[in-house]
Design goal:
This protein has about 100 residues and is of the alpha/beta class. It is built from three helices and five strands. The chain has one domain: Oxidized Rhodanese, domain 1 (3-Layer(aba) Sandwich). It has a five-stranded parallel beta sheet with strand order 1-5-4-2-3.
Length: about 100
Amino acid sequence: MAFKIPKTTTPQEVAARLNSGEKLNMLDVREPEEWAAGHVAGSKHIPLGQLSERLHELDPSQETIVICRSGNRSGLACELLSEKGFNVVNMTGGLNAWTDKLV
């Protein structure tokens, strides 16, 4: 499997879009304890290991920004989802590079 991510965005671009009032579909694929420590408001949580079984919870017709800690797991999730026909964008740098507020 070649590691290819169709589209990417930065944490700063995502924060700017959210702060301008845009409604974004965001998927956080980190582990439950990472999610509990803080996440982007409005994001959906599905750990990477559960993604294949929970595809039905996502809308393939909507752009989904995928988030993790550093951008690696979200990249894997993007590849998996892209192969299933989902419109996904990887947030490069992940929450390590996030400078806006978390909940």
